[in-house]
DNA sequence: GCATAAACGAGACGGTACGTCAGGTCTTGAA
DNA sequence: TTCAAGACCTGACGTACCGTCTCGTTTATGC
């Protein structure tokens, strides 16, 4: 998506325009191939074939496997929402379950971890992942906290810097715990675990907020 | 190491014996190559050359890139310790910092994430990682908790099942937060973060232990 | 040229007419590219760019690389002439030197041999070469012989069939020797060689004409 | 052949030796592909497949299509011989017919001309062709002339330099005429043509030898 | 003078082959 | 039997051209 968008921003106004169908077909084919084959056995030639597209068409839009997979997986995270369930605890449980569900999908499991691994040596890729995937989920933390503060479940933040640090910490703790449980421990994120986790997290946050 | 050991279980007693130096040289070369090249550009041919060994020698001991990298990285985690720092908070801070230091190494960043990605589609590999890397760190949780219970900082567990569930949760939360902070957020695990994290975690655990 | 002409024979009478400049620019660009790159590295896209023309414009006129190169090279042969130098020997030497000069040009060397090679498997191409390049040079043989017969240097032919056969043989011998010397032996067609060759050829022809 | 030989001259004495069967299979497959497809549609991937060999094996021995085709075609010229037919005229006719037969083969027609075309821009290739193909046929001229001198059909050469120049000229004339007749005029080298050609050539040579 | 219709530039498109590279296996001779 | 060396087969890589196809634009003619 990102690639396609960028190419249109400063794109030429002459020549045959790029096919929008091709973009969609390639991303869908990429997700299908991730499900069937996993990241390491996914080949761009195969993706092109599945998409009914020539390899050159694929390379015209994405620089390589990593960029393609990031874009293919990023879309899956856009469906995360934070419906108002009435209490902070319920909100957290809701988002944890949704997040775990996305991570449990085979295309996410295999694709996301692999590009994260690659990103440790490729700053451009890391930035792309951060932009397309990670940072977009921080909104959930901010929204949930704001809602809880309206409800009086959490006190308002003292200053903006504290607020940002705290949001980052919460994000690391929530996303980290779910990622670890799902992808590393490879255990299910089932209701008991969610309840336990939410309880510990909320008590910790509450204590930290009122504490010294 | 594991591969080498296994091969000796039912190993031959005749012919030229395998070189022990080769094992060590290969693992060291693998770590060096991970640092320089990262997982995706690491090639077994190159590792063999660096180790001064033929490719056949390498394949005689490890089935492929993944197995080799797991063994090469696993050793790095064995150096984690839990020195008694007097309080549970200090103990947690200590292990978090150590853990983060190991994850921050380039050979771990790139190698570990990649094999974790592969493990999502390869049960044998997942088991190997769990055995060689993940489960070995749970001892730190168990040891720290036992020590805190002796000190009276935490109440004893009611029953064994609860104890196990709780240890798993703590492990997911600690390891998950550090992994996410280090490898995904790509932000430093610096003292302020460690302090904030430990504070939230401890308050949460304490609250959960005493509460209903 | 041929293509362009043909297209006009049954051409439409409406719509924008084809640009005559484009034809010339393309052929000139083709010759330039042949000089710089040789046949095998010449690409139609590059020729189009050099000519300041779109690829479609090129393909509208020529079916492919071979046809284009034939037309580009054919023009070079039209400059061959047979000025009357007074004797048959001098006439032959003159035409041999001219012919060698055309063959020695880089665009001819590389282009002509390549399309000849292609023509061994493509009858239409062979016919095109014969029409555009080869047969047009036979006129030199016929003209030279007629002139020599007028001068009394050669006897008149007994019958037309003999005359044709003999002209073909002379053509094969002259053109063959020059082509072989230039393109295969890759030795210069210098005055001593021309003198030697002409002497042997003339003595042979004279002997054959008078002999049994 | 040449490539294989060279690689063995300074070749290593360790490691698995190159397969001699592969060499032969590749050259045979190349000739077969030349017959079926011609030079321009011949692909190295297809040759490798026909030979039952990997592309890398092929590229380990030959630098590219041109080198491969030269070696594949060169072998065909080694079968030319000069059996003693009693007179110089008969000897020449014999070798002309043999030479024409080799050139008329589809693998030679298409392959040889193409590499000659390439050689006009590649000195190494020209040298290779000269060594592998062209110069080896000069022996026929030298042998035939020597035999004719023994028989008294031709006078002995005055000095070595003249002898060499004369041999080159004869070679250009014989080979050139046959090449032109076969590949360019695309007319058959049939007995009448051979007789006419031989007659003109011999009379010319005889006249030149005796004349001033 | 305005519609028609073809040619034009640009460049994306589906293909095919390229020459290279890595994975993993096999074959040699030496240790 | 292992080892170093290196050839081998397989299959993917990313690139280059091919010849075709859309686009929007230009330029003659003929109604």
Salient structural properties:
homotetramer; 212 residues; mainly alpha; Arc Repressor Mutant, subunit A; Tetracycline Repressor, domain 2; 0% strand; disordered N terminus; DNA-binding
Structure description:
- The structure is a homotetramer.
- Chain A has helices spanning about 1-10, 20-35, 45-50, 55-60, 65-75, 90-105, 105-120, 125-150, 160-185, 190-210.
- Chain A has about 210 residues and is mostly helical.
- The first copy, chain A, folds into two domains: about 1-75, Orthogonal Bundle (Arc Repressor Mutant, subunit A), CATH 1.10.10; about 80-210, Tetracycline Repressor, domain 2, CATH 1.10.357.
- The longest helix of chain A is centred in the middle third of the chain and has 29 residues, at about 125-150.
- The first copy, chain A, binds a DNA duplex (31 and 31 nucleotides) through helix 3 and helix 4.
Kindly, what is the distance between the CA atoms of the first and last residues of chain A, rounded to a whole number of angstroms?
A: 47 Å
Work out the largest interface and the residue count of each chain.
A-B, 51 and 52 residues
Please give the largest β-sheet of chain A. Answer: none
Proportion of beta-strand residues of chain A: under 5%
Helical percent range of chain A? over 70%
Identify the overall geometry of chain A.
Answer: elongated
Q: Could you name the CATH homologous superfamily of the largest domain in chain A?
A: Tetracycline Repressor, domain 2
**Extended strand count of chain A:** 0
Number of helices of chain A: 10
Q: Can you write the helix and strand succession of chain A as a string?
A: HHHHHHHHHH
Number of domains of chain A: 2
* Overall pLDDT of chain A: 91
By oligomeric state, this entry counts as homotetramer
Spans of at least 5 consecutive residues with low confidence of chain A: 1-9
**Which radius of gyration of chain A do the C-alpha atoms yield?**
20 Å
The CATH level-2 architecture of the largest domain in chain A is identified as Orthogonal Bundle
The CATH topology label of the largest domain in chain A is Tetracycline Repressor, domain 2
* CATH C-level name of the largest domain in chain A: Mainly Alpha
Class by alpha and beta content of chain A: mainly alpha
């Amino acid at each position: 998506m990102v690639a396609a968008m960028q190419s249109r921003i400063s794109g030429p106004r002459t020549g045959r325009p790029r096919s929008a169908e091709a973009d969609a077909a390639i991303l869908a084919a990429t997700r299908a191939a991730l499900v069937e084959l996993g990241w390491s056995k996914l080949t761009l030639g195969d993706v092109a074939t599945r998409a009914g597209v020539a390899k050159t068409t694929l390379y015209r839009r994405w620089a390589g496997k990593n960029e393609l997979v990031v874009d293919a997986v990023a879309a899956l995270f856009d469906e995360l929402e934070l419906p108002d369930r009435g209490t902070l605890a319920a909100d957290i449980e809701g988002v944890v379950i949704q997040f775990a569900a996305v991570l449990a999908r085979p295309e996410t499991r295999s694709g996301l971890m692999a590009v994260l691994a690659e990103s440790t040596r490729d700053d451009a890729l890391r930035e792309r992942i951060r932009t397309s995937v990670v940072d977009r989920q921080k909104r959930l933390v901010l929204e949930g906290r704001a809602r809880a503060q309206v409800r009086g479940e959490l006190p308002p933040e003292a200053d903006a810097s504290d607020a940002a640090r705290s949001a980052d910490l919460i994000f690391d703790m929530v996303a980290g715990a779910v990622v670890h449980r799902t992808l590393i421990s490879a255990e299910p994120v089932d209701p008991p675990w969610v309840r336990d986790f939410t309880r510990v997290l909320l008590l910790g946050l509450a204590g930290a907020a009122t504490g010294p």
